[in-house]
Amino acid sequence: MMGTVKPRVLVVDDELGVRRALQRGLSREGMDVVVACDGPNALRIALTGTFDLILLDIMLPGLSGYRVLERLRAEGVRTPVLLVSAKDGEVDQADGLDLGADGYLVKPFSFVVLVAQVRATLRRGAEDGVGRTVRIGDLVVDRATREVRFAGVQVALSPREFAVLDVLANRAGTVVTKDELLRAVWGDEQAATRNAVEVYVGYLRRKLDTAGAGGIVRTVRGHGYLASTSEIDEALDPARPR
Predict the structure, then answer these.
(1) Where do the domains of the chain lie, and which CATH numbers do they carry?
(2) Distance (Å) of CA 228 to CA 28, 55, 174, 184, 235
(3) 13 — pLDDT class (breaks 50, 70, 90)
(4) What is the mean pLDDT of the chain?
(5) What is the pTM of this model?
């Protein structure tokens, strides 16, 4: 059961009209939708592992949907993937499923059918425990429920703030650049800029500070942002002075 939590969906299609239609439609269905228009960008965004589902067209510029899916599974990203294609041959479907796809939609498809498949796949993902819990000191980020707690107390975040924290938490101890955050959280949205990243990191920081978790999300000047604690710093670099 999803509750009021918005599932994050990555829509990958090289046709602008299709991307916009799916983004509008799925957003109206209560989902947080990020879009990508080609294979290389889709792979970079999807490798963050911050999505609940990926709608992945097979025929893409730069890197086919098959290859994107293959790389994701090779890198251990278990995000459920629904392949979308005008191809409807049994061999094509078998190839996709063999590579680790969770379903297959053939164009043209009814939007009602697509939403039903998306919701069914999201439910299976939740039941299979695709969501995971990440801990950074006393901060707990639960991807299954989209809840954040610090010292046992819930921290209320917007879907976009949660997405920013999710990326940083999943790479705790590693600097994440503004461009990486931009791709992971906003995808190919044309209106989004690095300034949007700064604004949302600021929102996130203020909420964490209020909860007593100040200092977990830091700015590394000239590079990006880092989610860490002194314990993580020590584990990564024992020679570093405390």
Answers:
(1) 8-127 (3.40.50.2300), 133-236 (1.10.10.10)
(2) 36, 32, 8, 19, 11
(3) very high
(4) 83
(5) 0.67
